Structure prediction request, 221 residues.
Amino acid sequence: MTEELWLTSNGIEHMVRFLTSYMPREGEQYFELFRGIKVSFRKLRLYCKAIAKHHYDLGHVIHLDSMDQSEPQLLIRDVEFWNRACSSEKKRPIAANLLRHIVGSPYRPPGTTKCEHCKGEGQFWEFDKISSYKHYMIPPGHYEKCYKCDGKSWIGKDYPKEWPSKVLQLAETINNGEQCGFALRDELLDLGQPDLAEHFIIDEGQHPEGCWAVDFILGKE
Ligand SMILES: [Zn+2]
Ligand SMILES: [Zn+2]
Prediction:
């Protein structure tokens, strides 16, 4: 899966497998499956909850707190259950958008931006260096880490170390399912954070619990 595909895909099964590196092999311990996980279990639980809530009005039957943290295989079964429930052409894009809304981009942490220097690839061919190093016999195809992002492929944006209490309060309110996205957007614009503010332009009340932008402000993973 590429980032472009992640942003446009409706293949929820594929997306979840990508997030969890879920490749069952016979006799394999479950914790082995989660070694390459790119998302917190909390986010996956909230994805199940969001689907149940939005499509079936069953949010109350998902007891997230009662799910045993040490049994990720049960969580994966739940996710697969809800994915199957959303397998129709109509529901699939809604589920994919919910997953994206909660997870954000698994390719870079929230609050960062794609490194423009290496186009978010982390490594790139440094033409200048290659030519000036010619005499040192750098082999063709030699790649170096992008010096701007140190090969991470993303760069941290400038955010306040601590958000004003008003912002935290509004984020908490959205997290509790109330509608104040526009108010939060205005606060973020006043703080000179247009990129993050942009997220709250979407319709009021459309932020599922675990929304990546709200979580980012509240410092939740
Ligand atoms: Zn870079
Ligand atoms: Zn949101």
Observations:
- Confidence is low (pLDDT under 50) at residues 30-35.
- The longest helix spans residues 41-56.
- The pocket of zinc ion (ligand 1) is lined by residues 115, 117-118, 146, 148-149, 153 (CB under 6 Å).
